[in-house]
Amino acid sequence: MTFRQSVQPRRDLTPLADTMSGMTQDATQNKGDTSHATGTLITVAPTGAETAKGDCPQLPTTLAELVETAVACQDAGASLIHIHIRDADHRPSLDAVLLSETVRAVRERTNLVIQLSTGGSVHDPLEKRLTVLDADPDSCSLTCGTTNFGDDVFLNPYPFMAQLYRQAQEREIVPEFELFDLGHVAALRRLIDDHGLPFGGKVHVDFITGVPGGMPGTPAALLAGVQALPAEVTSWAATGVGRSHLPIAAAALASGGHLRVGMEDNLIYAKGQPVQRNDELVSRVADLARLMQRPPLTTEQARALLSVKERRSP
Ligand code: KMH
Ligand code: ZN
């Protein structure tokens, strides 16, 4: 197996309006100009695995809280939900029954694209993380490399990534490639070279910036990552952890990117003001997106953007 390390120059991404109308614009037409992206995919990551309920009682950790959060965030402009579940003691869990129950409940009450985390918590074993796909989500996260994560290590060796990718292809689940560092872009290149495109043919990535140990949450670092993306990437989003939440959202919107927000990434709404509800974060960036003439995508537009398989019952 050869590892082609060269990072190809990225072509411009197909304008969303044209994707929606079925017309594909000449990829060279907008070189260097990403202001043409006309809609915004807003992902909410409401819970995460690293914050304790005791430290943040408003974190949605029960199934009822999660479903209520999902409905409120869809109403506020989110079209995709990135889910981590907790057990009865509010601890991070990858329990198969609970994962399936969660997917069913969120699918019943919303039209959100349902993405299950395969990252779990920093303490979850790789084998257990692979079993997440059994819950039949629309999408799964797939982190493209190991990252220092504060005092811990978020482990993602290449063979694990490749196995997860192949399983997602076989089960027709759309991966979201999570990029915590510039080197993860090269690993994404390798994954596509070795295993081809995801189910549906679209390649959507999310830069998760500002994790202590990963790429900094700065517009400069984000744009270095965007410039290095492989030509196969059809859409990208960005997340700023902690205090980089808003600057990264603004930089992504200005650069043709999509957004992820939520209490997985940020617990502070403004100075001295903790986040009370995930939909506050969604509403704020939905307003920003509208101000930037890039209104939130509907759930149906998000499904088309990502080419997710229809799993809802008629
Ligand atoms: N909890 C982090 C260690 C993912 O969801 O795929 C990993 C994470 C990534 O949240
Ligand atoms: Zn996550």
What do these coordinates show?
The chain has 314 residues and is α/β, with parallel strands linked by helices. It contains ten helices and 14 strands. The strands form four sheets. An eight-stranded parallel β-barrel has the order 1-2-5-6-9-10-11-12, surrounded by eight helices. Helix 2 packs parallel to helix 3 and helix 2 runs parallel beside helix 9. The site of zinc ion (ZN) has 8 residues, from loops.
Could you provide a short overview of the structure?
By secondary structure, the protein is α/β, with parallel strands linked by helices.
Count of DSSP strands: 14
Unreliable runs: 1-35
Main sheet attributes: strand count, strand direction, barrel closure: 8 strands, parallel, barrel
Portion of residues in helices? Answer: 25-40%
Structural class, judged by helices and strands? alpha/beta
If helices are DSSP runs of H or I spanning 4 or more residues, what is the number of helices? 10
What bound compounds does this protein have?
(5S)-5-amino-3-OXO-hexanoic acid, zinc ion
Strand order within the widest sheet? 1-2-5-6-9-10-11-12
**How much is the average pLDDT?**
91
Shape: globular
> How big is the Rg?
18 Å
Provide the β-strand percentage band. 15-25%
Distance between the termini: 44 Å
User: What series of H and E elements makes up the topology?
Assistant: HEHEEEHEHEEEHEHEHEHEEEHH
